[in-house]
Design a protein that fits this description.
With about 300 residues, the chain is α/β, with parallel strands linked by helices. It contains 10 helices and 15 strands.
């Protein structure tokens, strides 16, 4: 089973308009509400691919129950911990023809007993399971939450994927995560200098490997993607298409890589599926469907560096 944890899920209120003008009234041309959060997105795409997955995390109030309702429509299993107080946050995402703007909510308070309930869920995981830690940590939880979880589980030999930024990512490296997925800009922030070439990025990825990461998957938007493993470095050429959506593309890549690796144990084949999933979502209005992912997979070209 592949488990995902979303500590601070959200209802994404997405509006589309021709142009955004601040300080005045804007009229939308389209609007819809989607349950989101990085781990939830990963579970949805895994489910689209036919993989067995369960979404974990915390929800609260009617906004949290709406996320559950939407996941049921997708067919995604969930075992969220229901918080006694507060509301699952609402994120407003404004998509204009020339730019995207986001206003993200803070989220509810998670109590010590509710966090303990999550630990009990994780204690039931076995070496046959995969755990994906994705996204930010709410302010009511310890900032080293990912480290605490990985320390708690390190004796279980569970495959753990981490999709996070800056300190959340670098501080888990001693626990030898199976996969980390920074993008090229996040890598530059981590190393404090511009990493403008593939060689720069590969060198940085190898440095993260030396600190503990087993696989480093680097998304580069329209410039393709890189994978660095113990066997070498691989580059996936960019696929041409019309960019419609940037939300969930990285999560889709994590889902594609993890899901395929669980099946085949082939890192390069997993890389191809990761690129297919991320690209298909980028070219879709929402998270990519299985059919479109399979169609995109046929266009993926990978070369060893």
């Amino acid at each position: 089973m592949i488990y995902t944890i979303t500590f601070n899920p959200a209802l994404d209120y997405i509006v589309r308009l021709d142009h955004l003008k601040t300080g005045t009234i804007n009229r939308t041309i389209q609007e819809y509400v989607l349950g989101g959060g990085k781990g939830i997105n990963v579970s949805i795409v895994l489910n689209n691919l036919g993989m067995d997955t369960t979404a974990l995390g915390f929800i609260a109030g009617f906004t949290g129950e709406e996320i559950v309702t939407q996941l049921k429509k997708f067919g995604v299993k969930e075992d969220f911990i229901r918080l006694r107080e507060g509301l699952t946050r609402i994120n407003v995402k404004v998509k204009a023809s020339d730019e995207e703007t986001e206003i993200n909510g803070r989220g509810p308070i998670i109590g010590a007993d509710e966090l303990e309930a999550l630990y009990k869920q994780l204690d039931a995981l076995t070496e046959k399971d995969t755990l994906i830690l994705a996204g930010s940590i709410p302010s009511s939880l310890p900032s080293d939450m990912y480290e605490l979880i990985m320390d708690c589980l390190q004796h279980k030999n569970i495959r753990i994927v981490v999709d996070a930024t800056k300190d959340l990512l670098t501080k888990v490296l001693p626990y030898k995560p199976f996969l980390i997925k920074p993008n090229n800009h996040e890598l530059s922030e981590i190393f404090g200098r511009p990493l403008s070439t593939k060689e720069d990025l590969i060198e940085a990825a190898k440095a993260l490997q030396e600190k503990g990461a087993q696989h480093v998957l680097i998304s580069m938007a329209g410039d393709g993607a890189l994978l660095v493993t113990s066997e070498g470095a691989y580059f996936a050429k960019p696929i041409k298409g019309t960019v419609k959506n940037s939300v969930g593309a990285g999560d889709s890549m994590v889902a594609g890589f993890t899901g395929e690796f669980v099946k085949s144990k082939d890192a390069v084949e997993a890389f191809k599926w990761g690129v297919a999933c991320g690209t298909a979502t980028t070219f879709s209005d929402d998270l990519a469907t299985a059919d479109y992912i399979k169609e995109t997979y046929e266009k993926v070209e990978v070369e060893k560096r």
